[in-house]
Amino acid sequence: MLIEKILIANRGEIACRVIKTCRRLGISTVAVYSDADAEALHVAMADAAVNIGPAPARESYLVMEKIIDAAKKTGADAIHPGYGFLAENEDFAKACAKAGLVFIGPPASAIAAMGGKSDAKALMEKAGVPLVPGYHGDKQDEKFLKAEAKKIGYPVLIKASAGGGGKGMRVVESEKDFAEALAGAKREAKAGFGDDHVLIEKYLASPRHVEIQVFADTKGNAVYLFERDCSIQRRHQKVLEEAPAPGLSEATRRKMGEAAVAAAKAIDYVGAGTVEFLLDAKENFYFMEMNTRLQVEHPVTELITQTDLVEEQIRVAEGETLSFTQDGLGIHGHAIEVRLYAEDPANNFLPGAGRIECLQFPRGADNVRVDTGVRESASGKDVISIHYDPMIAKIIAWGEDRAAAIANLKSALDETLVAGPKTNIVFLRRLLASEDFAAAKLSTGFIAAHEKELLPPKQPVEDIGFVLAALDLFIRREDRSFKGDMADWESPWRSLVNWRLEGHATDEYVFRDGDREVKVSVTPQGDYHAEPEVVMPDSRRTRVTVYSPAYVDMDFSVVIDGTAYTGVTLRDGARITLLRPGHNDEFTYLDPLGYDEAEEEGDGKLTAPMPGKVVAVRVDLGAAVKKGQPLVIVEAMKMEHTVIAPADGVVEAIHAAVGDQVHEKYELISIK
Fold first, then answer.
1. What region does 43 belong to: left with phi over 0, alpha with psi -120 to 50, or beta?
2. Span 360-383, pLDDT tens digits
3. Which residue ranges form the domains of the chain, and what is each CATH number?
4. Alpha-carbon distance 6 to 155, whole Å?
């Protein structure tokens, strides 16, 4: 049969990605969405859309009955699960088949075989695939697992058996930390995957994480589309992926590929899948797990193999033979992907949420691809929700070789402007600029080993940043009454500058960056003030040419001393966010007509670092606490974050209980 309509049981960039491929193939699409996603990009892109419930995933995207019902009501032939949510749920695959719907993914039996990390490792052990030493059995009581960890030898890795993405995972350095780490891993596993079963492995300190993309059809054909290096991670979650893996020998590439294909054939796999390995310095590899779905990082494989894996998924689901053979596949150039997240790298990569105030991607750049599920447009601004993964976009660059791919990705990130919630874009720029990254000295411990380089103290804003902010504020004030009607252009009331007889008054703008105050003066010249005179922070005078007034768009473009500058300035009260290629600056505008918006937080007030759910309160009223002691655990986006005591003291008040949903900066505990 030919699939004519596909329901996409997911959201965000993967839903948008599937819709684009379906459009090209002439297949109509149905989006599902929660209350939080009613205005989301994937909903706007699809041919039809169905609301499936409240914002929490467990009440919407994870309710398979609602998704099956939506498919039936809209006449869909098939369901594409994307990745995450129900993509690796064998019961969902069975439910699709029972409802007469094509599940665009592997058979339920293959999902079951690899769905549990413990069972998958046992299967691979029988198949002769090397494993990391560990315990993968069913006994789950704390005393037994602690004994197994001691037998394996510290450090060990506790890992959720039913999931991935770093959720339900803890590195334990010593026996005294085991109990708390186990409890935390089990809570996260239960919240993220509905199953608190864990396994324990020997923790390899600095291996590389290399995975093999496999693809199989219903005719018994299976191939590998080479490898991806996913070693750059934080909190066991991938930040950057590239293909092919730098420095990997052809012999090892072939051995890993053949092992991955053997694993797929052992479980009668169909469709796209990924077999993940740890690789040591001597190119010994150890099986980690198999993801029975498309991966977030699949674009780098598509770029180096010149394939469309989503299209291939659909064709295989229709019963077609694979469109490529192993001998026909080759590696063309190099591709690198970074994940642009709403998170705060300076605060242990704390996930963020909030409205996107500005979002501009590279425009017309060669060899650059952007996969995203959000936008900032005239029709409205999307929100990064606390209920889902905080990824904003994947930015991918291709080059003839690795150096060219890095250069193209650097340019792409410099041209990417984003504001609203805190993001990791400056961190990503530093990562690509790292000499060790350029030299391909990769390991899963890369970020920790380069922490000082990648996460330095806040750098002072360059003087040119204050000048650009002053010019933008000047232009906006001058032209804010102009609405585009040229009949108003000659009106004496159009301009709101400080007009003076026999000339123009000088505007002074004072900014604060940390402990430093900087002043910039702007004096209009001529009738239209397109070439004002500016007194720079270093007291130097210069004439400036303004090319793009702020009332046309949020962009501005000026020429200062022969150098062109472009950017976007956003103002939120006293806070100024200045975005320009390669820079994301934040500082304070000391508006003489404004007011001090600084929020002073009293001593001893512990607040929620982000919106989320309180899952544990570890202290009682009146208890004495020590600096650094864990007091409250808040869960957001299925990850746990511990709020610790900032100093020694006594608990005066507890304002939150387990189960409470709290907003950012909500006062959790007061300490005297």
1. alpha
2. 999 877 899 999 999 875 455 688
3. 5-104 (3.40.50.20), 133-202 (3.30.1490.20), 205-332 (3.30.470.20), 334-435 (3.30.470.20), 463-589 (3.30.700), 605-671 (2.40.50.100)
4. 46
What's the CA gap between 312 and 672, in Å, rounded? 62
Contacts of 172 (CB under 8 A, 6+ apart): 149, 154, 155, 156, 157, 158, 178, 181, 203
Q: At 636, is the secondary structure helix, strand, or coil?
A: strand
B/e letters for 536-557, b = 16+ CB within 10 Å, e = fewer, are bbeeeeeebebeebbeeebbbe
User: Phi and psi for 406 in degrees, rounded to 5?
Assistant: -60, -45
User: What type of residue sits at position 112?
Assistant: A
Contact between 30 and 6 (Cβ < 8 Å): yes
Compute CA 654 distance to the chain's CA centroid, rounded to the nearest angstrom.
33
DSSP conformational letter for 504: E
- Length of the chain equals 672
pLDDT at residue number 503:
64
Which residue reads 């750049």 in tokens?
365
Higher per-residue confidence, 433 vs 114: 433
**Is 187 a residue of the active site?**
no
Q: What is the pLDDT of residues 22-59, one digit of tens each?
A: 999 999 999 999 999 999 999 999 999 999 999 989 99
User: Is the predicted pLDDT of residue 547 greater than 90, yes or no?
Assistant: no
Q: How far is CA 194 from the centre of its chain?
A: 23
Cβ-based neighbours of 76, under 8 Å, separated by 6 or more: 5, 6, 7, 30, 70, 101
Are the CB atoms for 215 and 312 separated by under 8 Å? yes
The answer to whether residues 105 and 82 touch, using CB atoms and an 8 Å cutoff, is: no
**Active-site position among 170, 208, 293, 339:** 293
The better pLDDT of the pair 602, 456 is held by 456
User: Would you call 244 exposed, middle or buried from its count of C-beta atoms within 10 A (0-12, 13-18, 19+)?
Assistant: buried
Cα–Cα–Cα angle for 37, 43, 44, rounded to 5 degrees: 120
Q: CA–CA distance from 156 to each of 129, 150, 193, 201, 203 (Å)?
A: 21, 9, 22, 6, 5
C-alpha–C-alpha distance, residues 33 and 42, integer Å: 9
> What are the DSSP E strand ranges found in 193-236?
198-202, 208-216, 222-234
Q: Give 592's contacts (C-beta < 8 A, 6+ positions apart).
A: none
Q: How far is CA 603 from the centre of its chain?
A: 33
Q: What is the pLDDT of residues 111-145, one digit of tens each?
A: 999 877 677 877 888 777 778 888 888 899 999 99
Using alpha carbons, select from 609, 653, 608, 645 the residue that is nearest to residue 629: 645
Task: Give Cα separations from 652 to 601, 607, 615, 624, 631 (angstroms).
Answer: 16, 14, 21, 10, 13
Contacts of 117 (CB under 8 A, 6+ apart): 136, 159, 160, 161, 162, 199, 289
> What is the pLDDT, as a whole number, of residue 330?
97
The b/e string for 298-319 (b: 16+ C-beta within 10 A; e otherwise) is bbbbbbbbebbbbbbbbbbbee
pTM, two decimal places:
0.81
Question: Coil, strand, or helix at residue 72?
Answer: helix
